[in-house]
Amino acid sequence: MTDVQLGMPDLPAPDYPAEVRTRLEEDAREVIARYPDSRSALLPLLHLVQSEEGHVTRTGMRFCAEMLGLTTAEVTAVATFYTMYRRKPSGDYQVGVCTNTLCAVMGGDAIFEELQSHLGVGNGETTEDGKVTLEHIECNAACDYAPVVMVNWEFFDNQTVESAKALVDELRAGRTVEPTRGAPLCTYKETARILAGFPDARPGAVEAGGSAGPASLVGLRLAKGEVAPGRVVSPRSAGAPQDEAPPTHPSSHDAPQRTSASDPHHPAGPVAEEGE
Questions:
Q1: Fewer Cβ atoms within 10 A, N terminus or C terminus of the chain?
Q2: Residues 49, 61: Cα–Cα separation, whole Å
Q3: Alpha helices in the chain (DSSP H)
Q4: Are strands 149-151 and 93-98 parallel, antiparallel or unpaired?
Q5: Can you say whether residue 151 is alpha, beta or left, with left for phi > 0 and alpha for psi between -120 and 50 degrees?
Q6: Which tops the pLDDT comparison, 204 or 70?
Q7: Which keywords does this chain's UniProt record carry (predicted)?
Q8: How far out from the chain centre does Cα 53 lie?
Q9: Each residue of 115-136: pLDDT tens digit?
């Protein structure tokens, strides 16, 4: 009789090889010591095990559970909640294209669509050479540089379809690529270890991290009085010739139409339930 497979993984998960386990335990104890409550170390520990295999495996979740005295169910609940933890093998470079509102209308949607075709992968998929994993991101928190692409969480601002294609080609060719701002690129595994809280030992990497770009700091400079405030101009009158008055009703917002809510002859009110 053939065994019935229900699609459930074999339990328990396999352990790390002894030498890997010993090394990770040493790192894990260093992380746990930073927190008064050991379970608070779960997020950085998930980054730690992700730095080992490039994604969070069942073995990694078992390791976190054992180090923190949690159940594997508790660890799995966290690992599956946050999108920063990968659940399957990924590329050396996570290329995230922002497709949220501003980046989308500035070209993010076109960039993401073209990169899927150019790389021959879908969302969350990895190229055959294992170099690039492509995904769309809801927001990179860099709207003033839209459209934005991130590689292993480093910024590549003001992208175009062509510049994004050139970027992934350089990554796949193994050439050095410099982010628009921030630290130099490293592999996804190296990035995960940094996110686990371990120092970036690369010469000059920390100093290169810098701060927000000039476009992000305009408001702060204005608040400090470093730049004279600009004259506030109505967007509807700014483009009108000096000898020509701006249109009186350029939009329905300036000339609201009568609706059931504004027409006194057809007042709006609560709709009664049937039978009332």
A1: N
A2: 8
A3: 18-32, 42-53, 58-68, 72-79, 101-103, 109-119, 161-173, 188-195, 205-208, 218-223
A4: antiparallel
A5: beta
A6: 70
A7: 2Fe-2S, Iron, Iron-sulfur, Metal-binding
A8: 20
A9: 999 999 999 999 999 999 999 9
pLDDT score recorded for residue 2: 54
pLDDT tier, 234 (very low <50, low <70, confident <90, very high otherwise): very low
Tens-place pLDDT, residues 145-164: 999 999 999 999 999 999 99
Question: Do the Cβ atoms of 122 and 153 come closer than 8 Å?
Answer: no
pLDDT of 5: 59
Q: Residue 195: which region, alpha, beta or left (left: phi > 0; alpha: psi -120 to 50)?
A: alpha
For residue 127, the number of C-alpha atoms closer than 13 Å in the C-beta half-sphere is 22
User: Residues 6 or more apart from 189 whose CB is under 8 A from it?
Assistant: 50, 51, 52, 54, 92
- Average pLDDT over all residues of the chain: 82
Name every residue whose Cβ is closer than 8 Å to that of residue 34 and which is 6 or more positions away in sequence: 41, 197
| CA atoms of 264 and 64, how far apart (whole Å) | 66
pLDDT, residue 152, reads: 93
- Report the C-alpha gap between 99 and 97 in whole angstroms: 6
Q: Give CA–CA dist 10/167, Å, rounded.
A: 40
Residue with the larger pLDDT of the pair 27 and 241: 27
Q: For residue range 33-43, list pLDDT tens digits in order.
A: 999 999 999 99
Cα 62 from Cα 41, distance rounded (Å) = 15
The C-alpha R_g of the chain, in whole angstroms, comes to: 26
DSSP code for 11:
S
- CA 115/CA 121 separation, integer angstroms: 8
